[in-house]
Amino acid sequence: MNKKHFIVLFCLGLFIIACKKSSPIVEEIETFLGFQKPANFPATAYNFASNPVTKDGFELGRMLFYEPRLSRNNTITCGSCHIQSSAFTQHGHDVSHGIDDRLGTRNSPPIMNLAWSKAFNWGGGVYDLDTQPIIPITTHEEMDENLENVYNKLRAMPKYTSKFKAAFGTEEINTANFMKALSQFMVMCISSNAKYDKVMRKEGGVSFTAEELEGYTLFKDKCSSCHTEPLFTDGSFRNNGLGISPVNDKGLYTATLIETDKYKFKVPSLRNLKYTAPYMHDGRFLTLNGVLEHYNSEVQATPNLDPLLSGNRLGISLTANEKTKISAFLNTLNDEDFIKNPLLAEQ
Amino acid sequence: MKKKLLYFVTLITIILSSCSKNDDPAPDFEEANLAPFSIEFDNIVGDRTFSINNTGSLYTNAAGEKFSISMLQYFISNIKVTTASGKTYTVPQDESYFLINGADRNTRFTKVQVPEGDYTKVTFTLGVDSLRSTMDLSKRTGVLDPAAGGGHDSGGMYWGWNSGYIFFKFEGNSNVISDDVNGDPTGKKQFKYHIGGFGGYSAPTINNIKVITIDLNAAGIAKVRKDRQSNVHLFVDMMKVFNGPNAFSIAAHPNVMFSDYSVNVAKNLAQLFTHDHTEN
Questions:
Q1: For a tag on chain B, would you pick the N or C end, based on fewer CB atoms within 10 A?
Q2: Looking at chain B from residue 162 to 201, which residues have their Cβ under 8 Å from any Cβ of chain A?
Q3: Domain membership of residue A281 as a residue range
Q4: Partner-chain contact A125 B200, CB within 8 Å
Q5: pLDDT in tens, A160-219
Q6: Structural domain boundaries in chain B
Q7: How many domains is chain A partitioned into structurally?
Q8: B254 backbone dihedrals φ, ψ, rounded to 5°
Q9: Could you tell me if residue A217 is inside a domain?
Q10: Share of chain B above pLDDT 70, in %
C-alpha cells in the first residue's frame, strides 16, 4: 500500500465518519427533548411536577403565545410585546404598547429563563408562572380581554380543541390547562448559549478576550452581588436609585403595601442586552452607557435605596475605561441561538 | 272494646313517636355518617331587606348618608361544625368554597355534608385561605377559577396583579360622593369596597381573612339527620359595613380596595353575621 492509497482511504474514512455523525443530529432535532436544564445553571424554581413539559403541551403553549384571540379585538398576541428577535421584549418601546395603541407604564420584560424565577413582574405580586398571563390578558392597556371570552373563542376552533386533547387528554379548555400550556412554552424559552456560557462550560475551546476577561473581573467586583451568575439576577427586588418617575411607580410596594418595599423593582437579568434596549422598569435609558453612567453618577437617595449603592458615595464608581471593559463582558451574554431558535418562533 | 284498645294503642304510639321526636337523642358522632347541612347567608340592610339597585328607596347609614347597592359578592369557605361536647368536623376543603351573590338568591345557601349530630357552633371563613390562594390552578376551579365572573372590574373576584382573591365586593351609589379624585371622577357617584389580602406570599402583607364562629345555643342548635335538611339561618347585615366597630362615612372613604384602610373595613366585616334561627 503506497502513500496515495493511504490518502484515498483516509479521505473515504472521513466521509464515512461525517455521514455517521450527521444522521443522529437529524434525529435529535426531530425528537422533542422537553425541558433540559443547562449544565451551568442552578436548580429550577418552577413546579415541573404539576406541569411536565410535553411536545403537545409546548406546541399548544406556542400556539397560544402567538394567538391574537387572547386580546379583546384579536389584534395583540403575547408575541406582540415579547418579540423573539428582541429576546422576547418589545425593543424600542420604553413602555409596552398594547391594544388600541394604549401605553402601559412599564417596560416589557423578557420571556427568558422563567423556570428559575420565583417572582414575576417588575413590581412582583405574582409568584407562580401559571398565574402570570392573567395580568396581560386582562389589563386595560395590554390585551383588555377577559379569560372566559378567550376560552370561548378558542373552544370554537378545532385546531385548539384537538391540541388541548393531545396535550391534556381532554378537549376541555379551562384556566388550568390554558395557563399550564402557556407555562410549558415559556419555561422552554431558555437562554444559555451565549459566549459566556460556552466559556463556563468549556465548550469548543471558546475563551474570553483580554478585554472581556478584565470586564468580567470588574463585573464580579462591582455588579455581581445583584446580577448573580449564571442567570445574572438574584431575583430580588431592590431600589437602584432611579429618580422617581412622573407616574410615581412605587414598584413592589404596590403589591405588598410594605413601606420598605417602596421603589423596589425586580433585578433584571443582564443577558441579551444587545437586543433588549431600552433599559430599566420604565425604559428610561436608551443605551447601556446610559445605564452605567446612572450607577456612576446619577443614583439618587430615594426611600429604601439599596445599601449596596449608598456606601461612602452614592452609586458605583466607574471610569470610562472600566465601562468599556464591563460593556465588553456584557456583550458575551448575548445569545444569538436564543433569538433565532426556530422552536420558539411563531410557526 | 277492641275498637277502644285500638284507639288506645294508636294514641300511645302517637305520644311515644312524638316523644321520641322531641327527645331525638344525638346520634353517635361518626365521621362517615354524613347528612345534609347548610348555612343560609340571608343578606339584610339594617332594619330592611336587601335589594339590588334600590334607587327608589335608598338605605341610610349611621352617618346619615343615603345609598343604593349595585353589587354584593363574598366568599364563604372552610366550614366547620362543633358539638356541645367539643367534637368538630371540618368539611373537606375541596367542597368548602362558596360565592354568595346578593343579586342571586339561589347562592345564599352553603350546602355541605357533615356527620349526623347536634351542633352548637358553626365556624366559617369570610374570604379564601392563603393556602388555597396560592395553590396550583387545577385546584382552583368553580367559584375560585380566576376566569370566573369576568375581570375584576366586573363580577370577577380575582386580582391578577397580586395573585389574590377579592373576599368581599360591595358596590353602590351615594350622592355624598364627590366628583373629584377623592370620590368618583367619572361623576357616577359610585362607592366600591373590594376587600382582599391573604397575608402575602413570601413576606407578611395585610391579612383580611376573617374566621367567624357563631354560637347556635341561643337561637337554636343544628340537629343534622339524614332524613332532614338542617339549615342555620344567618342574617348578614350590610349596614354594619359602615356602622361596625370601625364606623366610617361613605363620603370619607368611597373607595377601599387593596390599601391599609381595608384592614379597618375588614374588622367591620367580621361583625356582619348574626344567627336568627335554625331550621331542623
A1: N
A2: 162-163, 200-201
A3: 195-337
A4: no
A5: 999 999 999 999 999 999 999 999 999 999 999 999 999 999 998 999 999 999 999 999
A6: 35-279
A7: 2
A8: -75, -20
A9: yes
A10: 90
